Amino acid sequence: MGLEQFDELMWVERLADRLLGLSTAQKPYLQRYWQSHGFPAQITYNGEDETPFPADDLYMIYEDTRHSIRLGNAEYYSELKAALDPVRGVLRDHPVISRALGQRIDGDEVQIGILNSTTLTSLSQMIVGQMAQNESGLRDGFLQTASRLNALLLSSKVKPDLSQANNLNTGMDVALFFGLRVPHEIDLGEGYSLIPLALLKNYVDPEWLRGVAPEHVEWRRTEAMFAIIHRFAWRPYIRNKHSFDERTYRTFPPLFHRWTEEFSNLLAVALGARTTRVMTFEGCISRVASDLLGQHHGPNSPQKGRPIGHLFSSFAKFEEADVGEIERAKSLFSRRAKTDYADLAPAMYRLAEAYSRDGRFAAHDRVLDLAIVFERMFKPGNRQISKALQRELAELLGKGEEDKCRIKDSVAHFYNVRSAIIHGPLDNRKERLLREVEPAWLEGAKLAREALLLKLE
Prior knowledge:
Helix content is 50%, strand content 13%. It has helices at 8-25, 27-37, 55-66, 68-71, 78-93, 95-101, 123-135, 142-155, 214-218, 256-271, 287-292, 323-334, 341-355, 362-378, 385-397, 401-423, 428-433, 437-456; strands at 44-45, 48-49, 109-114, 117-122, 170-178, 186-189, 192-196, 225-233, 237-240, 276-284, 302-304. It is elongated.
């Protein structure tokens, strides 16, 4: 059957009806399988059932049923086979699958290509995906899963277009950070968005982060994780299992790492907060699409950033990030080609690093970072650095003589603390200054942020 004669609605209704019958017929077989092989562990958290769908167990039952005659179990699996074979038959009737399977009546496997990887996939795996998606609580059940599968299969014949793509055909490159509680998705321009991790659950499984944030994952404390994402359109490639294709269908955006890193630095400066890169995932597709195409939903090209397990605290509270400041950072970043951004970028990076410092001497390191920030911004020369910076910052930020005097005093105190950190407690005065590192950092960081943002504007 060609696409011109294909009746989509009829195919969807037929598949949904057969799947409903199969879902009933398989229940006693699944129970008996567990009785002999062991029941899956039940996982609950705060009263909610988080037990994974038994995809592997169901796949084994389907495959045993398909080969039941050869294995001598035809009588045992007869009822399940009577429900399973019609589902396979409807799947084979789809023109995209039919063409990929070829002329063999017993054909059951096709190549499914997603982005730059290809796997050999059986009809059993695709049926398991239908069952998994139905278990997720869709309003229209199998009618919805069958309709989505049809849309995915037909999209393999159409050139990807992000403006026309639905959620199934939309993928994401994801740079994941820690330190801010982002309230909702915010468009950053240039195809990028800022989004809380909670809104990415269909693309990024928190379990993928267990290696860098084990306690955060274990205790479901991921509210301070956010991502900068870049969406793209994709389509599956469904071919005969004997076909050969080494083409590269998608190339990672060459500036993705640089764009996300630079914006996260500016965000740290604008909000005065940590923005620590945790992981980067290249080419994530939705769990729904993975299930429906019979694929394992796993991380694609993960790149680890900094582990944050040691930062976990069950009592930590994160205030919502100021959306106004995020919009300000977005505006400044959009005009970076017309401002002194390139000259100020090293100072912004250093200040962002200071906010991400941790460890025994983190406060000392922050002060030294801050000294570099001030000197990169104002280039005071080699003599009387403190006085030169006092004058520059007071003129830039001061709103009157009293305010200018306060700023000069803060800068002078900051540089005295810096000297004490570098030279150590040589006398009582420097010993006292070493006890004032934290306030020196806080006041200095405030001045540095205001100066940087003002210079960028």
